[in-house]
Structure formats: structure tokens, C-alpha cells
Design a protein that fits this description.
The protein has 394 residues and is an alpha/beta fold. The chain has two domains: 240 residues, 3-Layer(aba) Sandwich (Aspartate Aminotransferase, domain 2), CATH 3.40.640.10; 146 residues, Aspartate Aminotransferase, domain 1 (Alpha-Beta Complex), CATH 3.90.1150. The chain is built from 14 helices and twelve strands. Strands 1-7-6-5-4-2-3 form a seven-stranded mixed β-sheet, with helices on both faces. A five-stranded mixed β-sheet has the order 8-9-12-11-10. The protein is globular and about 75 Å long. The N and C termini lie far apart (54 Å). Bound molecules: pyridoxal-5'-phosphate (PLP). Pyridoxal-5'-phosphate (PLP) binds next to helix 3 and helix 4.
Length: 394
């Protein structure tokens, strides 16, 4: 059975009524037959049937044993960090999602958890950076926004040899392209806000564990801390997941076409996309994923914030916004948006140049998206008035 067929049929038909869409159980509590005797549910923070359906679907999709759904991607990441105790160390990818950096460094360091940020694109760096205190290795692959790729299988071996957990933030690839648990990771987290939800209409997070025992620990943490996903939002993620394979295939096809166009454009200095043969870890990306995803970044030959601002205000289909993974194409200028809180020197050192533009390539026709970028480049060259400025005059 193909992955898509398996996925579509892992979404159950309601056994009570035959409803083909998963019912939304909008309830806080469940009536018990006698104290402690219930139908598997007692209080909706602990468990809810709609959320449980989503949790089973994501566990199957990531080839894990347990799925747990949270109110946001960061709430999911937070639950994984609560496995640690004071004195433990995290070894994390250096080009980490800004929100994860803020949580690790500005919240957890004060509880005595140390974080060591390492360039994980070479597994040897991980091997040398592990210490006896390291309990958790944290990867994103590909990363945001420079699309760095790390070898999950090689790093999983290092984690196992040193008795630490490997957690992979699989938001960018999604399980349609990459399944880290099959490559040896212990945990996967998602911002389901992005490709799993897929329609830019909710905030949600997921954790999947390979082993049941670790899943029970995360479930305990969730019930104790309370950062659950609501029934309606659980239903929205389920509905998004139904078309995940189809969407991600098209996102990937469009992104490759856009990346190839950008590579040939005279105003572009460099293109970051794991699907390009020029990407330094293209071979690893090919080995561990079925496709290269919908995110493309590039820097301009005129590497200034002003040049990037000029460009990102001139596109018509690519809307200027944070976030990614939705139907409509988005673009953002990390130096002034997602990475604004990082000091300029540190940001540049991490490869996020002043003019770096990140595209979330959507589901429009690739040729329309390329034409949109082409007209934006052309109008910056001719110094015509930007689209947004024109819109405000109107
Ligand atoms: C967006 C994002 C997150 C955070 O998820 P939220 O749903 O916004 O809390 C974490 N990791 C990555 C890679 C992301 O892109």
C-alpha cells in the first residue's frame, strides 16, 4: 500500500454513526458509570477523542508508537525539554528556529540546563561536542532559513552510543518527505501550524516518540502542564493531513522550479535549496528524504536590507508574512522579521545575510510564481514605485 493510501485510510470512519469526517467532541468531561469506570475518557485535558484520533494518525505517519498534540509547536518543544533536569546539557543545531532558541536559552538556562549550539551539518562536530552531561541532541533538518541539512542516521548513532535522546524538529520536511524515527531518532516534534495543518488557519504542535515508555512520559508532562490542542483545532489538523502528500509533492515541485529560476537570475547572489546539486549536503538530503520541500531562500548580489525590502514589497502572489507551509505563497525578510531579535553580527555569522529572503512556495502554478518574482526584480531594477506603496496611496 502506498504512503498516501495508508495515510488516508488511517483516518477512521466514526464507528458510532458512520460519519466519514472525524467527529469534534467539544466537551470538558465524560460521564462515568461508577467512580473510575469510564469509556476510556474522564477529563478532556487528559484525553479527548478528537485529539486522540489526531494523535494516532501522526504516530502512524511518523512510524512511532505515541503521538501527543499540543496547543503550539513551541508547547510541544517545551514538553520535550521537561524530560531534562538541572545539570543536563542540550546539544542543538546552530541554525535553530528562533522560538526554540528563546525557549532553550532564555527560559531553560535559568533552571540549570545548558545548551551548546553546534554546526551539525558535519556529524563529526556532534561527535566531538557531546559531553557526559549531554542528555538531548536537537536537530532541525532542513533548517530555517538557510536550509542546512544534517545526517539524521549518523547523528542518531552518536546519540545512542552516548545514551542521549535525539529529537528532530521535522516541521520543514513533514512526514510526507522524511521520517526521522525510522532513521534512529527517539522523538520528532512538529509545528503543525505549517505543512501538517497546511492552510495557514491554526496554531498547533505535535510530539511523536519511537518508544511507548517515552510517550507515556510526555503524556504525563502534558497532563501535568496542560498545553493541549483543542478539539476543533485537532480536527483542522486532521483535515489538513488528509491532503498532506499531495500538497507536499506540489510544494516541492514548485520550489525546485523557483530555485532553478533564481539560480539563473542576474540579481541573485546565492540560492539555498536542498534539491539543488549545488547544495553542500544535497546527497544526504537525497538519501534521507523523498523530496526537498517548499522552502527556498536566496541572497541578493546587492546584499543590503534596503535591496531586500525593495524586492519583498513588489511581489503580487508572494505575500509578505511570517510563517510558512500554507496554500498561498509567502515571503519574508528574516533580518527584519523572524530573526530581528538576533544581534546582526550573530545573525550574519549563522549565514542569515542582510538581504536573505525566504520563500514559502505555495500551491499556485510555478510559472505564475516565477513571473511574479521576475516582475518584482524588474521593477526594482527600473526603480518604479513598490506595489505596497502604491496600494497605500490608493
Ligand atoms: C514555526 C516553527 C516552530 C514553532 O511552532 P509554533 O506552532 O509557531 O509554536 C518550531 N519549529 C519550526 C521549525 C518552525 O518553523
Amino acid at each position: 500500500m502506498s504512503n498516501a493510501t495508508q495515510l488516508i485510510h488511517s483516518i477512521p470512519v466514526d464507528p458510532l454513526t458512520g460519519s466519514i469526517s472525524v467527529p469534534i467532541y467539544q466537551t470538558s468531561t465524560f460521564v462515568q458509570d461508577a467512580p473510575g469506570i469510564n469509556k476510556g475518557f474522564d477529563y478532556a485535558r487528559t484525553n479527548n477523542p478528537t485529539r486522540a484520533t489526531l494523535e494516532n494518525i501522526i504516530a502512524k505517519l511518523e512510524k512511532g508508537s505515541t503521538g501527543i498534540a499540543f496547543g503550539s509547536g513551541l508547547a510541544a518543544i517545551d514538553a520535550v525539554l521537561k524530560l531534562l533536569k538541572s545539570g543536563d546539557e542540550i546539544l542543538a543545531v546552530d541554525d535553530i528556529y528562533g522560538g526554540a532558541f528563546r525557549l532553550f536559552t532564555h527560559v531553560y538556562e535559568k533552571f540549570g540546563i545548558r545548551v551548546n549550539y553546534v554546526d551539525t551539518t558535519n556529524a563529526e562536530n556532534v561527535f566531538h561536542a557531546v559531553t557526559p552531561q549531554t542528555r538531548l541532541i536537537w536537530l532541525e533538518t532542513p533548517t530555517n532559513p538557510t536550509l542546512k541539512v544534517s545526517d539524521i542516521e549518523a547523528i542518531a548513532k552518536i546519540a545512542r552510543a552516548n545514551s542521549c535522546w535525539l529529537c528532530v524538529d521535522n516541521t520543514f520536511a513533514s512526514p510526507a518527505l522524511q521520517q526521522p524515527l525510522s532513521l534512529g531518532a527517539d522523538l520528532v516534534v512538529h509545528s503543525a501550524t505549517k505543512y501538517l495543518g497546511g492552510h495557514s488557519d491554526l496554531i498547533a504542535g505535535l510530539v511523536v516518540t519511537k518508544e511507548k515508555e517515552l510517550g507515556e512520559r510526555i503524556k504525563f508532562i502534558q497532563n501535568a502542564s496542560g498545553a493541549i490542542l483543542a478539539p476543533f483545532d485537532s480536527w483542522l489538523v486532521i483535515r489538513g493531513i488528509e491532503t498532506l502528500h499531495l500538497r507536499v509533492q506540489q510544494h516541492s515541485r514548485n520550489a525546485l522550479a523557483v530555485a532553478e529560476f533564481l539560480e539563473t537570475h542576474p540579481a541573485v547572489g546565492k540560492v539555498y535549496y536542498p534539491g539543488l546539486k549545488t547544495h553542500p549536503n544535497h546527497e544526504i538530503a537525497k538519501k534521507q528524504s523523498r523530496g526537498f520541500g517548499g522552502i527556498v531562500s536566496f541572497i541578493l548580489k546587492n546584499d543590503t536590507e534596503a535591496a531586500a525590502t525593495d524586492l519583498v514589497t513588489r511581489t503580487k502572489y508572494f505575500k509578505l508574512a511570517e510563517s510558512l507551509g500554507g496554500v498561498k505563497s509567502l515571503l519574508c525578510h528574516p533580518a527584519q522579521m523572524t530573526h530581528k531579535s538576533i544581534p546582526a553580527e550573530k545573525r550574519r555569522a549563522a549565514g542569515v545575510a542582510d538581504s536573505l529572503v525566504r520563500l514559502s512556495v505555495g500551491l499556485e502554478e510555478a510559472e505564475d510564481l516565477i513571473a511574479d518574482l521576475e516582475q518584482a526584480f524588474e521593477s526594482t531594477r527600473l526603480h518604479t514605485q513598490p506595489l505596497q506603496a502604491r496600494a497605500t496611496i490608493n
